TrEMBL record:
Transmembrane recorded as keyword: yes
Cellular component terms per the entry's GO annotation: plasma membrane
Organism of this sequence: Microvirga tunisiensis
Family per record: Belongs to the multi antimicrobial extrusion (MATE) (TC 2.A.66.1) family.
TM helices/strands, residue ranges: 17-37, 49-68, 98-116, 136-154, 166-187, 193-215, 246-265, 277-299, 320-342, 358-379, 391-407, 413-433
Name of the protein this chain belongs to: MATE family efflux transporter
GO-annotated molecular function: antiporter activity; xenobiotic transmembrane transporter activity
Pfam families: MatE
Membrane topology according to the record: Multi-pass membrane protein
Subcellular location: Membrane
Keywords: Membrane, Transmembrane, Transmembrane helix
InterPro entries the UniProt entry points to: DinF-like, MATE_fam
Keyword Membrane found: yes
Superkingdom of the organism of origin: Bacteria
Length: 445
């Protein structure tokens, strides 16, 4: 096996990078539709408290489920390496272990739904009418947790194989199903906010079912592996450790963005609104950069699996180059057309004026974050999750230090801290990766 793995040469080209990246860019653009569809349909009922409940529900579930986005990333990295090695049995074992973790975690979320709801509702601090409606939405949608997490696993497995086209197909299918189910249940059957929750949950269930069909068509059969293989101590500990590391990384990322929003809110309604408008620029840039992170994740993981160091280094150079190039292009676009974007999103004169004062900071976020996005994919594909976790924590500490030291600068300090947070992650990963790569390929020789 060693000889055949060493002899293999992967297709690492500009075309291959774009083939992998562009479908995932489109997929990421569709992701916010799950919450948007619920909000749009409920909004047509004309009840403000229902719309507020759906908006808060989307935030809560984004936080809870995205914290376990490690399932997608860890599965993708391990699957990419098994695919690169040509070991289809290990691909199925990776899938089975990830499904086991997703199922157990999803059941735990269901069992712990009351304490989770109590904490989330108290932090939301909404009116009683909103809280009552939110309670209905939450306690229905939470039952889809195992299927939502299973969808992360399925997506990770398809991406690890380099089938980002199928990843896009699955995301679109879930979103279309959500639109159909939610409109039918809310507007057709008059189920109100309960219908929105049921529709979203059913879309996740359908997505998981379709995903399993797709995996079977790809030749996977996780039921064909044996329990002793699935529960192999070393492999299971690696799966759990990777998920733990990425989860810590995700929580630190969520906290950084939450702190950004919270401190902006303390500065007044105008600052909060202006930052919200500008923050959307970072999100838009992130949709493009995430695609190249996925390409890096797939190609780097497969190169390690194939024991092809030359392909690995080429994958790093190309994915990093495309990510920086897109980051620069998107930043330039925002600097040129950011004013039009601000005017389109907000009609308030004060918000428009204030947002223009900080436009340059928001416009630079894609460029400053480009390396971090690319290296997140590289580190995930290489399964260097412990180092990725540690570097994220260091960047988070730097972020907090700047906020404490430059707090007198107000909103300027907030944006400087965010740019530092983004760039520090990429810089740390860039400095460390040659040593990690040398160690990885030395262990494979």
């Amino acid at each position: 096996m060693d000889g055949s793995a060493t002899a293999r040469r992967l297709d690492i080209s500009h075309r291959r990078i774009l083939t992998l990246a562009l479908p995932m860019t489109l997929s990421h653009v569709t992701t916010p539709l799950l919450g948007l569809v619920d909000a749009t349909v409920i909004g047509r009922l004309g009840e403000a408290h229902l719309l507020g409940a759906v908006a808060l529900g989307a935030v809560i579930f984004d936080f809870v489920f995205w914290s376990f986005g490690s399932l997608r990333m860890a599965t993708a990295g391990l699957t990419a390496q098994a695919t690169g090695a040509g070991n289809r049995h290990e691909v199925d074992l990776t899938l089975a272990r990830a499904f086991l973790v997703a199922g157990v975690t999803g059941l735990l979320l269901i069992l712990l739904q009351w304490p989770i709801a109590t904490l989330a509702f108290s932090m939301a601090g909404a009116s009683q009418a909103v809280t009552d409606a939110l309670s209905t939405y939450f306690f229905i949608r939470i039952w889809a947790a195992p299927f939502t997490l299973a969808n992360y696993v399925i997506l990770g497995s398809t991406l690890g194989r380099g089938r980002t086209d199928l990843g896009l197909l699955l995301q679109v299918a879930i979103n279309v199903a959500n639109i159909v189910f939610t409109m039918a249940l809310v507007l057709g059957f008059g189920l109100g906010i309960a219908g929105a929750a049921i529709g979203t949950a059913l879309a996740e269930v359908l997505g998981a079912g379709l995903g399993i069909v797709v995996l079977r068509r790809l030749g996977s059969n996780p039921l064909a592996v044996t329990w002793p293989e699935v529960l192999h101590r070393a492999a299971m500990l690696q799966t759990l450790a990777m998920n733990r590391d990425i989860m810590i990384r995700n929580v630190a990322l969520i906290l950084a963005f939450s702190i950004f929003s919270a401190l902006g809110a303390r500065s007044g309604d105008v600052t909060l609104a202006a930052n919200a408008v500008l923050y959307n620029m970072f999100l838009i840039g992130g949709y493009f950069l995430d695609g190249f992170a996925t390409a890096a994740e797939t190609l780097c993981g497969q190169s390690i699996g194939a024991r092809d160091e030359r392909s690995f280094r080429r994958a790093i150079h190309l994915s990093l180059g495309w990510s920086l190039g897109f980051g620069l292009a998107v930043s330039a676009l925002f600097l040129i057309g950011g004013g039009f974007f601000i005017d389109f999103v907000s009609t308030n004169p004060e918000v428009r004026s204030y947002a223009r004062d900080y436009l340059v900071f928001a416009a630079l976020t894609p460029l400053f974050g480009a390396a971090a996005f690319a290296f997140d994919g590289i580190y995930t594909g290489a399964t260097w999750t412990r180092s990725m976790r540690d570097l994220m924590v260091i960047a988070f500490i730097a972020y907090g230090a700047i906020l404490l030291a430059a707090g007198d600068l107000g909103n300027t300090a907030l944006w400087i801290a965010l740019l530092t947070f983004l760039s520090a992650r990429g810089l740390g990963q860039f400095i460390l990766y040659p040593r990690l790569a040398k160690k990885t390929f030395a262990s494979l020789s």
